[in-house]
Amino acid sequence: MRAKAEAPPDPERFPSGRRRSPLGVREGGEAWEQIHVQFAREALRLLAELGYAGMGMDEVARAAGASTRTIYRHYPTKVDLAVAAIEQLPTMAGWIDGDDALEDRVARAISIGEAHHEYLVPVMANAIVYRNTVPELLDALRDHVLAPRRAVIEAYVTRDKAAGVIRGDVSADVVSAFLTGERVESFVDVPRGSVDQHLDAAVRKLLPLIKP
After folding, report:
1. How many whole angstroms from its chain centre is CA 60?
2. What CATH number does the domain containing 52 carry?
3. Domain containing residue 133
4. Can you say whether the dihedral through the CA atoms of 194, 196, 202, 204 is positive or negative?
């Protein structure tokens, strides 16, 4: 009597028969992606508020309204989660888009940056503090945030130099350093006055450095 052929393994289940992903949250599905991003966003908030040491997997799962077991299915380690959190920071893409006046574009970039400084500065500080023990944080910050920001600035510095809008000796590094410094300064020394007043002051400081 011929032996009955074994059924091929079910990719949806472990050898024990238990589903790898519960119904409704299979990996790659809409629900999966939604909670995957939610974990990263909550991790970014806690990383900024509590630091890397205080950003526990349990705390992030609880903030996202999920179980600890679920978060480990998305992010196997705390480092993986922290890197995903850093990747949620904006890169300046689109901030300086447009053909309007240089003053307007600079003001727009600084204004958008104001909305994110509460995350960027403390995350930068953590990446620097843990640069020797958790180098992945600094790598993620450089590769996914700082380098893309500099590339955006480089593109517009090159364009505006060619148009004669800014001086020929201005480098992207100078503008990038200024914008980053503004974020740090506004975080450490909370400016007095309205948001518009602080924005005007920042623009007035930068423009003389770059205009012909």
Report:
1. 17
2. 1.10.10.60
3. 102-210
4. negative
